[in-house]
Amino acid sequence: MMAERLHILLEQHWGYKAFRPFQQEIIQEVLTGRDVFAMLPTGGGKSVCYQLPALAADGFCLVISPLIALMQDQVLHLEDRGIPAACIHSAMGRQQIAHILDKAAAGHFKLLYVSPERLQTEAFLDDAPQFSLNLIAIDEAHCISQWGHDFRPAYLQIKKIKKVFPGVPMLALTATATEKTQKDILAQLELRNPALFRQSIVRSNLSYHVRFTENKAGSIVSLFRNTEGSGIIYCRNRKKSMETALLLRQQGIESLVYHAGLKKEERACAQERWTRSHHAVMSATTAFGMGIDKPDVRAVAHIDVPDNLEAYYQEAGRAGRDGITSVSILYYHHRDLSRLRESTAINYPSSGFLRQIYQYVGDFLQLPVGSGKEQLFAFDAMRFIKSFGLETLRAVSAVRLLAREGLWIWDENTQTQPVIRFIAGKETLAYLERSAPQLSYVATGLLRLYGGIFHFPTPVNLWEISRLLRLEQADFLAALDRLAAWGIIDYRPALAGSTLYWMHDRVKPGHLLLDQKRIRTQRAAHAERVRCMVAFLENGTTCRNVQLARYFGEQQPDACGACDVCLGRAAIKGNPEEIRKQIREIIEQDQQITVQALTSCFPGVRDELIIGILRRMSDEGMCTIHPNGTIFIT
Q1: Sign of CA dihedral 104, 107, 108, 112
Q2: Residues 298, 227 contacting (CB under 8 angstroms)
Q3: Residue 498 contacts residue 411 (beta carbons within 8 Å)
Q4: Got the DSSP string for 177-246?
Q5: pLDDT tens digits for 223-263?
Q6: Please, which pLDDT band fits residue 415 given cuts at 50, 70 and 90?
Q7: CA 344, CA 527: separation in Å to the nearest integer?
Q8: pLDDT, tens digit, for every residue of 57-80?
Q9: Euclidean distance between CA atoms 233 and 614, whole angstroms
Q10: Tell me, what's the pLDDT at 305?
């Protein structure tokens, strides 16, 4: 009966008639009350593993997730499916959070999303014992491990919530965790006799290619000019994503841009256009990833090398979710290798520099020592960096590291609605009607349009209110400011852009407690991940699928037969004409390429063989070899 009900719920709310691998087994285990650890690849349907059992059982599911945008995106999708859900994050005021916690305790939701930092606040801990939970789900569970690629110290506190709900099962989910990280997740969460589900990371329809090139732009244009279907290009920064999109448009290829610096509406519009199109290319930073469920992505390209194999695998895995043959191509050159090798020192600066940044941020926000706990501030990172004459990469890395240490939450793309609550009594409103009729008109209009605004902090649409009240926007906003100044309403204007949520009262830099041992461990783990990323780029003898599978703990993977390494081997076994054909295709693709870059495209093939074929092609007038080593197509 339960299996039948699960299928009914799956089709009713998600429109699917069948479960993906391991989904049903995971759901059935948690419904029996058992702890579960599941490692499912990108696109494996992890969210359904906790959303569906939340519906199937009494009570609600508490979901612990690291990213505000991801939580908001999930809540919107659930509401669209008719499933009541909410999230609590740092961009909300205390009254808003209290209101949501009260509704959760009263059973109004089936899922409540919170960040790990929120679990430690007094407001949450006070209300938590009143919750009727049916499941605790930990998304991105690798964040609990110091060996993981996105460690968040606040995740270490999650196991404490289990003491409040000792009989509630816990589900830990991740897409990317090495064998060492997987073991650490199980230990840190103290899962009891957990059911373990690990889906192979090997994707038979996805081939991985690594290309050394000194003309990335030409390679990208050629790739998508010859790709039938939509694609994604991942870029390291916003500037590169915009430049790449413009380049593709100039070549007649439909291209869109997505990065955290765009307005929320602009990002949503770009993603919607891309999702509907069968051939558009999205040029994006790593901010593009959450909520992507487009099955027909034929190619994912990296124009910049990711920092680690976890990020690379997750991003590459957005291709070919429909099971049809797709490709991931990673382009690199010598500067990428240098940047990777320097990245550990940049990402993990000295304790002295961290304390200095802590002081500068406090000064920038004009925050006195002894204040600031659980307050939200607008934080323009670039203005901060320029104000103190800091080096951008080191400063940004320090702000992020201090965020991981739990001192604050830095959200680079916050967008909040304005929130209003009446704090004056009816007697004051009656006096307002006599003494300031225009303000009374605005106050009465708010009460009429938002019935609960007298009791709860309420998100409002300022443009819609001013339109209905037939007031100019400027006059309406001025009236709100006056009502707040007179103590009649509590008014929190909307915030857009980068924000910093300060988790504690500010201390003097000398009193700042930093876990140096933990930071050293993270530094060592980062250095090891960089070493593995560089090895992946330079290893031209082992199948790419085999390299990735071994990295994530699979011991006996089979060669894929379709990656650049496997194809290079096939070329060796075949006749020289096949190599000659591939050489011509590469030169035509890049327009110009060095001998060194060309030979690197044939891992396992002797350089002398490639150079010999090149010389014959040059003698026949098929290409030109410049004295500086650059090859041009004729």
Answers
A1: positive
A2: yes
A3: yes
A4: --HHHHHHHHHHHT-SS-EEEE-----TTEEEEEEE-S-HHHHHHHHHHS--SEEEEE-SSHHHHHHHHH
A5: 898 888 899 999 988 889 999 999 999 999 999 999 877 87
A6: low
A7: 6
A8: 999 999 999 877 788 888 988 998
A9: 31
A10: 95
- Beta strand 230-234 with 36-39: parallel, antiparallel or unpaired? unpaired
Instruction: Return phi, psi of residue 275, to 5°.
Output: -65, -40
Please report, to the nearest 10 degrees, the dihedral formed by the alpha carbons of residues 141, 145, 150, 152 taken in order: 90
Instruction: Give all strands (DSSP E) within 259-337, no chain letters.
Output: 281-284, 297-302, 326-332
Do 634 and 250 contact (CB within 8 A), yes or no?
A: no
Task: Please name the residues in contact with 190: beta carbons below 8 A apart, sequence gap of 6 or more.
Answer: 159, 162
What lies within 8 Å, CB to CB, of 629 at 6+ separation is: 594, 595, 596
CA angle 568, 572, 575 (to 5 degrees): 120
> For 195-212, how does the pLDDT look when each residue is reduced to its tens digit (9 = 90+)?
999 988 888 899 999 988
The residue behind tokens 């508490």 is 62
Furthest-apart CA atoms within the chain: distance in Å? 97
In the numeric block, the tokens 């939509």 are attached to 230
What is the Cα Rg of the chain in Å? 27
Residue 444 pLDDT grade (very low, low, confident, very high; cuts 50, 70, 90): confident
The most confident of 253-262, 359-368, 503-512, by mean pLDDT: 359-368
Tokens 């413009």, residue located: 246
- The neighbouring-strand residues paired with 35 are none
Q: Is 170:162 a contact under the CB 8 Å cutoff? A: yes
Contact 232, 287 (CB under 8 A): no
CB 181 within 8 A of CB 147: yes
- Give SS3 for 50: helix
- Token digits of residue 203: 């994707």
**Amino acid at position 590, single letter:** D
| Among the ranges given (17-31, 53-67, 288-302, 541-555), the one the predictor scored with the smallest mean pLDDT | 288-302
DSSP characters over 325-368: -EEEEEEE-HHHHHHHHHHHHHHS--HHHHHHHHHHHHHHTT--
